[in-house]
Specification:
The protein is of the alpha/beta class. The chain folds into two domains: about 280 residues, Aminopeptidase (3-Layer(aba) Sandwich); about 110 residues, Alpha-Beta Plaits. Helix content is about 35%, strand content about 25%. An eight-stranded mixed β-sheet has the order 1-2-4-3-5-16-6-15, sandwiched between helices. A four-stranded antiparallel β-sheet has the order 10-12-8-13, covered by helices on one side. Strand 3, helix 4 and strand 4 form a beta-alpha-beta unit. Helix 8 crosses helix 10. The radius of gyration is 24 Å and the shape is elongated.
């Protein structure tokens, strides 16, 4: 299938895809239960192939069977919104207390467009394409749930590669695709720490056991301690996001407990494991020094997103051949954000792709970023995004070499 022909065909879909995206933008839903979103997508992919719905989440796996035998490729679009009150100038903005502030409404529209392109030309497919519409990307492990339910196996064969596109309202020039081989995004999770001391009067701290001081020491020394224990060329980021201790109405009471929560970012599977051991040792040492009890818990974290080298090379070649070299950017460093696409790529192989979608006339280096309640996206990029997803499927599943 000629990739440039897909681009031209996708361009005829643009107005329809923009309408779908704007409909979805007005009905954002949270986490794993997205019934309205699921219904809207089902209406747009009716008749394209075999539908499998999720059991424990409102997911959709669309199987498009090719006319010829061959392997399976998976294309993924995430569906969920954030608990953010939208503050934009869009005339289709959300008013229900949630917002597609990360661009998942564009991802769904691109997935729908790609599905139509693939289904229209399935006579040229030497294999099958599975299009995933996945809830729960924003910290709810929707990818893991779909994998557990076997949604990747709906063709009867394990896909040989998976691809997904993520739009950005800032940081990338408009319409530029970006990726990198190896680590592309960090593992992202939480660390919750609680110090148990003994309450008392602030005038006599030796009569109690202040939990705040060891908590402060734990926070102030943690990053430095990690820097001494772990390879500095494989970074670990721990940043405290909240503190809880005492009562703001009084200063002369020693509380019994003090807590903090931090985000934890790692960029390799090795340090994902090591940081859990090192942090436990560090907190145990502080607990012994102060005679307090310290409990800690690491949340279920996204995995490190590690792109396959060959898959990224395919993305780069397809983008450059289809859209021109100016439309591809080779990322020099990973991004510290997390994504559960990591679980899909770890299981199936493949690559994740970033895509610039900032509003025209704004500086992409200073525009409101994804997750901001002011983030706005240019949905004229939808056709090219859909075309790239379809082109990657056809690039894998085109006519085999003689």
């Amino acid at each position: 299938m000629d990739h440039k022909a897909l681009v031209a065909e996708a361009a005829t879909y643009l107005e329809t895809l923009q309408g779908i995206r704007r409909d979805l933008h007005q009905i954002p839903e949270f986490a794993l239960e997205l019934p309205k979103t699921q219904e809207r997508i089902l209406g747009s992919i009716k008749g394209l192939g075999e539908i499998t719905l999720g059991k424990n989440l409102n997911s959709i796996a669309l199987l498009i069977k090719g006319a010829h035998p061959g392997p399976t490729v998976l294309l993924r679009a995430d569906m969920d919104a954030l608990a953010v009150q939208e503050d934009t100038s869009e005339d289709f903005k959300s008013t229900n207390g949630y917002m597609h502030a990360c661009g998942h409404d564009l991802h769904m529209a691109m997935g729908i467009g790609a599905a139509h392109l693939v289904a229209t030309h399935k006579d040229k497919l030497h294999g099958d394409v599975v299009v995933w519409f996945q809830p729960g990307e924003e910290g709810h492990d929707g990818a893991g749930v779909m994998l557990e339910e076997g949604a990747h196996m709906v063709s009867g064969n394990k896909p040989i590669a998976a691809y997904g596109i993520h739009v950005f309202s800032a940081m990338l020039p408009n319409r530029v695709f970006a990726s990198r081989p190896g680590t592309m995004m960090a593992s992202a999770g939480d660390l919750i720490v609680k110090v148990h001391g003994a309450g008392g009067h602030g005038s006599s701290p030796w009569m109690g056991n202040d939990p705040i001081t060891p908590l402060v020491e734990a926070i102030s020394g943690l990053q430095t301690f990690l820097n001494k224990k772990l390879n500095a060329f494989d970074p670990v980021i721990i940043n405290v996001g909240w503190l809880e201790a005492g009562d703001t109405h009084t200063t002369n009471v020693i509380p019994e407990t003090a807590s903090f929560g931090a985000t934890v970012r790692t960029f390799s599977r090795e340090h994902f494991a090591k940081v859990r051991v090192v942090v436990a040792d560090y907190l145990d040492g502080i607990a012994k020094s102060y005679g307090v009890k310290i409990e800690h818990e690491f949340s279920n974290a996204t995995k490190v997103l590690i792109n396959e080298v060959d898959a990224v090379a395919r993305v780069e070649r397809v983008v450059m051949d289809t859209f021109g070299p100016q439309r591809y950017f080779d990322m020099p460093t990973p991004m510290a954000g997390g994504e559960d696409m990591a679980s899909i790529i770890e299981e199936l192989g493949g690559a994740f792709i970033f895509y610039g979608a900032h509003k025209p006339g704004v500086d992409f280096m200073t525009a409101p970023v994804n997750h901001s309640n002011k983030a706005e996206f240019d949905d004229t990029v939808l056709a090219d995004g859909a075309a790239l997803l379809a082109a990657l499927a056809f690039d894998h599943l085109g006519e085999p070499a003689a």
